[in-house]
Amino acid sequence: MGVSVGPGDSTFTVIARGASSCAHVLHVTTHIGLADAIRKIEPGLVERTIRRGHEALVRAGVPEPKIGVCAINPHAGENGLFGQGEEAEKIEPGVKAAQADGINAVGPLPADTLFFLAGRGDYDLVVAMYHDQGHGPVKVLGIEAGVNITVGLPVIRTSVDHGTAFDIAGKAIADSRNMVEALHQAAEMATRPSMAV
Known about the structure:
- This protein has helices spanning 34-40, 43-59, 86-100, 111-119, 131-142, 177-190; strands spanning 10-16, 22-27, 67-70, 105-109, 125-128, 146-151, 158-160.
- With 197 residues, it is α/β, with parallel strands linked by helices.
- It has a seven-stranded mixed sheet with strand order 4-3-5-2-1-6-7, sandwiched between helices.
């Protein structure tokens, strides 16, 4: 794949929207600046992220997940009109490599359209290229229900999908809904023996 990265550095963000509906987002890069994220994105990392997402959803009971992969530039670069050809250089080869192994991945697609399509159920997973590309829409969909699920670890790990909120610590005003949802997601995954692998 061209990238050597340790396990557990990819997290799903799951927005639970009732008992039968969820939105799943997996990031290629996360907590780094935008310019650094764009430099870091390369085909092997895109492919690895798609594969991890596919494997995690299959283990979660989605037998043939449909994966939409975000572009970096507006309108997916408009065939070179926007950007410096990042879609063709950094994303397309990773998508094609995943497709060659039978993974149903489509992209790069314009992120604004992709999140709309995923929201209506056309995609089981959105692969976002950088932090705010994925987290912005996720938080609009429901910050109070957001859960991070780390993939690539030998154990189940979930957490809330927001920061530490030190400004409200000790004031008894924190909203616990996504902590409860994180515990619910972990308990649900624990009933599937293969989820912790």
